[in-house]
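Encode chain A's predicted structure.
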Amino acid sequence: MGSHELSDRSRRLLATLVREYIETGEPVSSQVLAHASGLGLSSATIRNLLAQLETLGYVHQPHTSAGRVPTDRGYRAFVDLLLESRRPARPPASVEHELRQRAGESPFMDHLLAGVSHAVSRAARHVGFALAEARGPILQRLEFVPLGGTRVLVVVVSRDRQVTQKVVDAGEDVRPEDLVQAANFLTQEFAGYSLTEVRAAVLERLREERTVYDHLMGRALRLARSTLDQLPPNHTFHVEGASSLLDDAGLDGVSMSTLRALFEILEERERMVHLLNQYIDGPGLTIVIGAEHSAPDLRPFSLVAATAVDGTSIRTVGVIGPTRMHYSRAISLVDGTTLAVSRVLRDSN
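Encoded structure for chain A:
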């Protein structure tokens, strides 16, 4: 159930409450809302509306004598309202200027994206990141060739005639007919996907293996993983500004152990890229707030990212900060910067 269940004045009141809380970090009282909302409602009416919002899970009251603060659901409703009235975004002029300078110094994507993450982090005062991925070779078929005993030759053939081979120990004797069946299963499942997408899908299927797949299919997935894991990464990922979280006023109450867990995720770049790929399913904005994160260590934070697809490459620019972040500013920044990267790349070619 989304914010469509709310009346127009409840939505406006909630938006005012979220804005006030983002600015001050203090619970927002009905008196403040009566003045700031412009709804012309009495404090008593506003208290009744706040009680309804609390019952529905959009706000909560830290103490009985305090005002209200937004929940993750309240932030989500606020962001949905922002997106309904969003205008075309442009990054600060200084950001695009910095990117053009970097493009002039070096034509390589890696150099440019390092500048993107730095510029976005500095402008947002949060963690900034930039990711570029090439879709890479497309799978045509997989073959498993028995070599005797427990050894199997795994052959990965892509549509552009690239062939990757690896000898793998299956850990047990495998009948040739079982290997053919397993290879056919994987080919039917994944032909037409990029090898990077196949690798991610195989890892996901392996997590489900005990409850979904039989022994033969589980073995097929493990054989495929052992080969696909050797593929070189086809992405460039940069992240900057993790230390800014230590001074972020929006993270009051977040423990050092939680911050350390986030730092570890940011340092494990492959894990971070995997998380981003879970969230991003196409071009446009991706916003993940608090409890919506699949990784528990990220739930005190929000992620705002914008993705552009250009031919065979995918580029994403984003920020990670407290749930009490300036969402409007973050959305405009990452969306505008993603467009700026496309302009800079186009003009430099």
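The chain is about 50% helix and 20% strand.
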